[in-house]
Write a structure and sequence with these properties.
Structural class: alpha/beta
Shape: globular
Number of strands: 27
Distance between the termini: 30 Å
Bound molecules: fructose -6-phosphate
Number of helices: 20
Length: 608
């Protein structure tokens, strides 16, 4: 989820590239760079941090000569946010510069092959294989060369390329990552989305998968990978730039809710091979895992809720006892941790002070640390023995959605990884489980289609002063997250209860009209949950039940039903949470709350 731009025209390229990158900063902002071709030399400028630093370094682009160039704002996936890892990346002979958005899944093998052939790499990125491959296969014909290299790449990519043999031609290509072409008067442009182009032109061409574009200041040519010229339609659109940044949604939160299928695909990307899990650069071997007698998961807020899901799944699949603790409690309770305990930290930002402190505590007691983190190069990632990145892309809304969902997805992979290493499940069960995991993005897409129905239902809670979520097993874990989502953005008091626990005191709060939302996707326990629903319904509660499609058991006792597609029972958190993210969003929306920036909250909690 990085931002890329490219320019070829009669004016200086650098000022346009920097302005374009500024518009794309919401896509990633840990480092940035530009490469501009002047004569037959490619000049690059890169900085760590925001585009502002790059603008300062180049006097808003004035110090960089040349009318053709590419730029990139990065959200690190492979390699920390450093100048070396910032794009553009160059070929060894300095003939090619490349910017890339996406993930090249087979980069490890490609990189190793190139290293064996004597190629020197300057970064840890997946992207850098591309300029080296362009150099290797260059035959004087740029289209043929790009096409050949595309044939070698697996995964997703949008590429912007300049080549010193083509002093006015900007080259672009894509597969599974977005790339558009802006058709101007005396300039033509590429960008990962319209926001970077809006100031210059309203005429755009959408590049499709496996297409290559050659842009000069006066012409745009789009070819297929066999070199055949394609007839592409120019679309004229009217832009609302801020809406475009939010992908047409009113708030980042809804945009991020809708990004979840893609984010989960990214979290799984390259990690399931031949029916088993593969983690790159992972030092926790089978031998080390055999010595582990307990797993302790530590996190805060929604990440803690993801951890609770993880506890259920890990224990079920691996039979290793798994504890879950709040980071703010963990280090002040003299935790019993030694080298036989595996500590798993979960954090979207990777900067949460309590989680970082817990990490240090566990490490000092000899525990191996695995962290599940979104932000590459963050403090938690750096301090861990192993990091499993969630690759969700930047999460802007304070209330997490895709952050949580990708944490849960990575926990599924981690559970399957341990189960395979320790042989606690047979190969077929693991393969079937992973196939079910791979289907989740599709199932979530189906739920997202129900947005309007959930929006209507959300009207019910606008006047609630307090409500309850109940569930058992993983339904309970999800109810904690659903309840937090609702209260943090709509400011309505809400509590989550393990359904069987209500009658031990809290049921006294159930009265006529009190909303109780029952999560009922865990069908093994449906009879037990039904009894709990009857208990609250008998006391006048307004019951909304979320169940699997086709399950009619709860209709009689419920005032309203929400259905989600049935999935493997260990994976219900991924589907069941979605309607309640949307429900919470709309309750807050109807109440006129500041959805992306709820009161009193911050995205990254760096104080204890
Ligand atoms: C809730 C939310 C918070 C975070 C918590 C931990 O929507 O976002 O509860 O989950 O502050 O943050 P990270 O995951 O960055 O450690």
């Amino acid at each position: 989820m990085c931002g890329i731009v490219g320019f070829t025209g009669n004016n200086k390229a650098a000022p346009f590239l920097l302005e374009g990158l500024k518009k794309l900063e919401y896509r990633g902002y840990d480092s940035a760079g530009i490469a501009v071709l002047s004569g037959d030399k490619i000049k690059t400028e890169k900085t760590v941090g925001r585009i502002k630093s790059l603008m300062e370094k180049t006097d808003n682009g004035k110090t960089v000569d040349g009318n053709i160039g590419i730029g990139h704002t990065r959200w690190a996936t492979h390699g920390a946010p450093t100048t070396e890892n910032a794009h553009p990346h160059l070929s060894g002979n300095l003939k090619f510069a490349v910017v890339h958005n996406g993930i090249i899944e087979n980069y490890s093998a490609l990189r190793q092959k190139l290293i064996d052939e004597g190629v020197a790499f300057n970064s840890q990125t997946d992207t850098e294989v591309v300029p080296h491959l362009l150099q290797k296969y260059y035959n004087g014909n740029i289209t043929e060369t790009v096409s050949k290299v595309m044939g070698l790449l697996e995964g997703s990519f949008a590429l912007g390329i300049v080549c010193s043999d083509y002093p006015d031609t900007l080259i672009a290509a894509k597969r599974f990552s977005p790339l558009i072409i802006g058709v101007g008067e005396k300039s033509n442009i590429i960008a990962s989305d319209v926001t970077a182009i809006a100031a210059v032109t309203k005429d755009i061409i959408y590049l499709e998968d496996d297409e290559i574009a050659l842009l000069t200041p006066s012409e745009v040519k789009v070819l297929d990978t066999n070199g055949k010229t394609l007839n592409k339609e120019i679309t004229t659109i009217s832009w609302d730039v801020s809406a475009a940044e939010k992908g047409g949604f009113k708030h980042y939160m809804m945009k991020e809710i809708f990004e979840q299928p893609k984010a989960i695909k990214q979290a799984l990307s390259g990690r399931i091979k031949n029916g088993e899990v593969y983690f790159e650069n992972f030092s926790l071997t089978k031998e080390k895992l055999k010595n582990i007698n307990r797993i302790v998961i530590v996190a805060c807020g929604s990440a803690y809720h993801a951890g609770i899901v993880g506890k259920y799944v890990i224990e079920e699949m691996t039979r290793i006892p798994c504890e879950i603790d709040l980071a703010s409690e963990f280090r002040y309770r003299k935790p019993i941790i030694d080298e036989k305990v595996l500590t798993v930290l979960i954090s979207q930002s990777g900067e949460t002070a309590d989680t970082l402190a817990a990490l240090k505590e566990a490490k000092s007691l000899g525990s191996h640390i695995v962290s599940i983190v979104n932000v590459v190069g963050s403090s938690i990632a750096k301090a861990s023995d192993d990091v499993l990145y969630t690759w969700a892309g930047p999460e802007i809304a304070v209330a997490t959605t895709k952050g949580y969902s990708t944490q849960v997805a990575v926990l599924y992979l981690f559970s399957a990884f341990i189960a395979k290493a320790l042989n606690t499940l047979d190969d077929k069960t693991i393969t079937d489980f992973l196939n079910d995991v791979k289907e989740l993005p599709e199932k979530i897409e189906e739920i997202l289609k129900e947005k309007d129905a959930i929006k209507e239902l959300a009207k019910h809670s606008v006047n609630d002063s307090s409500l309850f979520f109940i569930g058992r097993n993983i339904d309970y874990a999800v109810s904690l997250e659903a309840s937090l989502k609702l209260k943090e953005i709509s400011y309505i008091h809400s509590e989550s209860y393990a359904a069987g626990e209500l009658k031990h005191g809290t049921i006294s709060l159930i009265e006529e009209g009190r909303t109780v939302i029952a999560l009922a996707c865990c069908e093994t326990l449906k009879d037990k949950l039904l009894s709990n629903i009857k208990e609250v319904a008998a006391r006048g509660a307004f019951v909304i039940t979320c169940a699997n499609e086709g399950n009619t058991d709860f209709i009689k006792e419920s005032n309203e039903m929400i259905y989600v597609p049935k999935v493997n029972e260990l994976l219900i958190a991924s589907t069941e949470v979605i309607p309640f993210q949307i429900y919470s969003y709309y309750v807050a929306y109807y109440k006129g709350c500041d959805i992306d920036k709820p009161r009193n909250l911050a995205k990254s909690v760096t104080v204890e």
